Amino acid sequence: MGSLTETIADPGRRKAVVDDCAHLIDAEVADKGGLSGLGIKGAYKTVKSLRPDMITRSMDHLLDDFSKQVDPFWLDCQKTGQAPRSYFVAKKVEVANALLQITDARAARSDHKTLVKAYKGLRGMAVDHIGAAMPRFADLLQKHAS
User: Fold this and answer.
1) What ranges do the domains of the chain cover?
2) Global pTM value
């Protein structure tokens, strides 16, 4: 079993991971409902209208840092022999907080006021929303890091 960091070292495989991450985000946003879903969809639409390739570009820029945060979880999942979906759903808060360390630091350094404002507006719900994405996220890891 490999790691996500090893997988993305190959440029061809990295592009596939980035594309699948962008599709995962699109699917998660599309599935959101209720008032918070409207806010998320609005912020997402704003981001995509400012720069249509923003999600893909952002994922490519974040992927190295994300993979370093995710690899310990992925390797532990493999070591324990648990099914990826079960493992990542059980660890959703820890995984979400690990990933948010990266985006919080990036937002703190960003000069893009509109994007930072949108990020801060959604940050309070981020752990829950990332947690909800764990089944798809686990599938993505299984597809690319196995």
Assistant:
1) 4-145
2) 0.86
